[in-house]
Amino acid sequence: MQVHTTLGPGLLESAYKECLQYKIRQACLHVEKEKTMPLIFEEIKLECGYRIDLLVENKVVIEIKSVEALNDVHLAQTLTYMKLGNYKLGLLINFNVAHLRNGIKRVINGTL
């Protein structure tokens, strides 16, 4: 909330990602930025370029957006990262809203 309150809507996703990572680290939590996620198909491991925006405490996937509105493709992306990493909790956050509470979607075991 503090990142959005300070910066407001309208910036690039990368700005919010950096600032949110900084605030998470300030809270003494482990956070990885742009964690790579390989795709395993049968016997081969594919480095397809999947990257989780932020992974907190190796448990929570945070996918950051700065778009007019979240849509199904954004949810599908978050769900894919959760499935590939076997993570149970995700947050899909759109910073391009007037009030951040309207831009946060919690995803648990593949559901909103």
List keywords for this structure.
112 residues; 3 helices; tt1808, chain A; alpha+beta; 30% helix; 5 strands; 37% strand; five-stranded mixed β-sheet; globular
Q: Care to describe what's here?
A:
The chain has 112 residues and is α+β, with helices and mostly antiparallel strands. The protein has a single domain (2-108), classed as Alpha-Beta Complex (tt1808, chain A). Helix content is 30%, strand content 37%. The protein has helices at 2-7, 13-26, 72-85; strands at 31-41, 44-56, 60-65, 89-94, 104-108. A 5-stranded mixed beta sheet has the order 1-2-3-4-5. The longest helix has 14 residues, at 13-26. The mean pLDDT is 93.
User: Class in CATH?
Assistant: Alpha Beta
Rounded to an integer in angstroms, the radius of gyration calculated over CA atoms is: 14 Å
For the record, the CATH architecture stands as Alpha-Beta Complex
Average per-residue pLDDT, rounded, comes to: 93
Binned strand content:
35-45%
The DSSP helix count reads 3
Number of domains: 1
Computed structural class? alpha+beta
Number of strands: 5
Unreliable stretches (pLDDT < 50, length at least 5) are: none
